[in-house]
Design brief:
It is a single chain. By secondary structure, this protein is mostly helical. 39% of the residues lie in helices and 0% in strands. Helix 1 packs antiparallel against helix 3 (52-74).
C-alpha cells in the first residue's frame, strides 16, 4: 500500500514538472508557421538543436507514461465485485407444496361455508319483577 502512495506522489510531481517545462518552452511562431505558412523550405520546418527544455520534456513525458502504467498495475485491486462485501439477502422458508392432483380426475368443488351463529348479547337481559 505504501508503494501506491509513493508512486502517486512521484507521479503528481512529474505531472507538475512536465506542465512547467512545456509552458516554459518558446513558441515556434505564429499559427501560420504550424500549417505550412512559414518561410522554411524543408518539409517539417527548420530543424532546431535540442535544448535542455526539449530534452527535459521528452524525459518527463516518458516518466509520465511509465508512471501511469505503474499506477494502473499497482492500483488494481484484483477480482472483486461491488457487492462482494455485503451480506446475502435473507432466505424465506419455502412454502409447503400443494398436493398433487391425479391425472384424469377433476378437483372437487369447495364445501359451502357453515352458517355462523349470532353472537351473544353483550348485556344480560333485565330481570322482571
Amino acid at each position: 500500500m505504501i508503494l501506491y502512495y509513493l508512486v502517486t506522489t512521484l507521479y503528481v510531481l512529474v505531472c507538475g514538472l512536465l506542465l512547467l517545462v512545456v509552458l516554459l518552452q518558446q513558441g515556434k511562431g505564429d499559427i501560420a508557421a504550424a500549417f505550412g505558412g512559414g518561410s522554411s523550405q524543408s518539409a517539417f520546418g527548420a530543424r532546431a538543436s535540442a535544448t535542455v527544455l526539449s530534452k527535459a520534456t521528452a524525459i518527463l513525458a516518458a516518466l509520465f507514461m511509465l508512471g501511469a502504467l505503474v499506477l494502473a498495475i499497482v492500483g488494481e485491486r484484483g477480482p472483486g465485485s461491488v457487492v462482494s462485501g455485503s451480506a446475502p439477502p435473507p432466505v424465506s422458508a419455502p412454502s409447503a407444496p400443494a398436493a398433487p392432483v391425479p391425472s384424469g380426475t377433476t378437483t372437487p368443488a369447495p364445501a359451502p361455508a357453515a352458517p355462523t351463529q349470532a353472537p351473544a348479547p353483550a348485556t344480560p337481559p333485565a330481570e322482571s319483577k
